[in-house]
Amino acid sequence: MEHFNTASEEDLEQALLSCLRSHRWARRVAEHRPYPDVDSLLAAADEAAYDLTWSDLSEALAAEPLPTLPPDAYSAAHTALGAAHAAYEARFGHMFVICLDGLSPSETLDRLLAAIRSRLTNDPEEERVVATEELRRLARGRLLHALRGAGNCASNH
Fold this sequence. Notes:
α6 runs parallel beside α7. The two termini are 20 Å apart. The protein has helices spanning 2-6, 9-19, 23-31, 38-50, 54-63, 75-92, 105-119, 124-148. It is mostly helical. The chain folds into 2 domains: 2-59 and 138-148; 69-133, no CATH class.
């Protein structure tokens, strides 16, 4: 926490943007320094994520990488996932995003395909809420990972 609280504004912004590619989110989290502990930082990060506008979310979604499959996934899975991503993007106009933290590699494929298929049935407003929550969970996990790694908030992609 000490490194996070004392990092230069530029270093901190880059580190936070590696957690969630929203300049507004990064700025809001950075503005509330110093944080007394990790829980306070995570609460502030969550609050900043909940307050993002659709424009802010679109900025973050545009920078998200596609979820990846385990290297030993069979080629039909890659084909199915590619088709599902294309259908999702055509329906909602943005990248599919999901937080898979805590899943074993063997669970990733099934969870990913089930989630994208299920979420394709959402109406656009409902999906916007789900995508926002997934981005918040991703940012939270990345922030925790960054804080654990090297004692600072370095990039963790």
